[in-house]
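Entry 14. Structure prediction run on the chain below.
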Amino acid sequence: LINPRLIPMACTPLALAAQKADPACVAALIQARAQVDQHVDNSGVTALFFACLTGADDCASLLIHASASVQCPSQHHSGPLSASCRGGHAKCAELLLDASASANDRDLAGWYPGFTPLHHACNWSRNRDDHGYFSQTDRDKPAYAGHEDCVRLLVAARAVLNRRDQYDGGLGLVGGTPLHWAAASGHVGIVRALVE
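Output returned:
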C-alpha cells in the first residue's frame, strides 16, 4: 500500500512527498516502513534524489537518517549529491557529504556523461538570458550563491578538480574540467574557489 508506483509516472508516495518538500508526509511514510531506496522508475531515481534536486534538506535529512543510500546513482541521471549541486542546494550537499557520499561519483550515461558533482555545480551556476546568451547582470544574484557554496564543500571534501567529462553542452567543451565550466559561466567566485 505505501510503496506502489504510479503509472506512467512510476513515482512512489515517498518520492512524491520528497519532491514536494513535505517533511511531515515523508516522516509518516518512513514510520509506516516505506522503502527509502525504492526506485521511482527504471532509471533508478529515488526519493532522496528528488529531495536533493528540489533542495528539501529537511526531507533529505529524514531519508538519510532512515538509511537511504547516499551512493545511489541512477542509470540515466545523477546521484543525489550531483542533484543537490546542480540546484545549488548546499545544505543538502553538506548532509550527503557528512553521510559519506563520494564527491567524485561520475554520471555514467544520460545527459551529462562523465560529470561529477563538481561539474554540475560549476555548469549550472551559469545564467542565460532569453536568447541563450550568458547574462552579464545576473551572475552574482543570490540564487547562484548556493553553487559557489557547493563548490567550496566539494573542494573541502577532496573532489578531483581536473577530472574531464564527455559532455559537449553546446559550448565545444568535450573533455571539460569543472574549471572550464566555471570559466564558461563567468562566475568569478567559483573560479576562485577552484584555483585557490
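The chain is about 45% helix and 0% strand.
Filed with the rest of this week's runs.
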